[in-house]
Amino acid sequence: GGAVGRMPTVEIRGWPAWTDDDDLKAVVEGAGHFPENVRFNRDTNTAIADFSSIAAAGAVAAQLSGFEFTPGYPLQANAIADPLPLGPANRPSGARPSAAP
């Protein structure tokens, strides 16, 4: 195959611990691009969805980011791909210290 490296993934955090796997999977599947696979790390409360393209992963991450899957629990979704030379997806989120006095 022509695939180099791993599939682009979306890491989803921010969902409450009691979330049902199937419920969260359905939210991911409804975000516009069907994932190849969704797996759950209950130790870190992270869901990892695999996508066949970086574009799909980025679109789903954008769609799910800030989505209140459970009221009061906005999701954090980040597209993770093999490092690219440039692109907005590589900027760390929330890494800057606050400029407020």
Layout of strands and helices, then pairs:
Blueprint lengths: L8 E5 L7 H9 L7 E5 L4 E5 L3 H11 L3 E3 L2 E2 L1 E5 L21
Antiparallel strand pairs: 1-3, 1-6, 2-3, 4-5
Structure description:
The structure is a single chain. This protein has 101 residues and is an alpha+beta fold. It is 20% helix and 25% strand. A hairpin with a 4-residue loop joins strand 2 (37-41) and strand 3 (46-50). It starts with 8 loop residues before the first strand and ends in a 21-residue tail after the last strand. The relative contact order is 0.24.
Structural features:
6 strands; two-stranded antiparallel sheet; 101 residues; 25% strand; four-stranded antiparallel β-sheet; globular; alpha+beta
Compact description:
This protein has 101 residues and is an alpha+beta fold. The protein is built from two helices and six strands.
Q: Using only CA atoms, what is the Rg?
A: 14 Å
Q: How far apart are the first and last residues' alpha carbons, in Å? A: 54 Å
Q: Which regions are unreliable across 5 or more consecutive residues at pLDDT < 50?
A: none
DSSP summary: helix tally = 2
Largest sheet: 4 strands, antiparallel
Overall SS class? alpha+beta
Average pLDDT level: 84
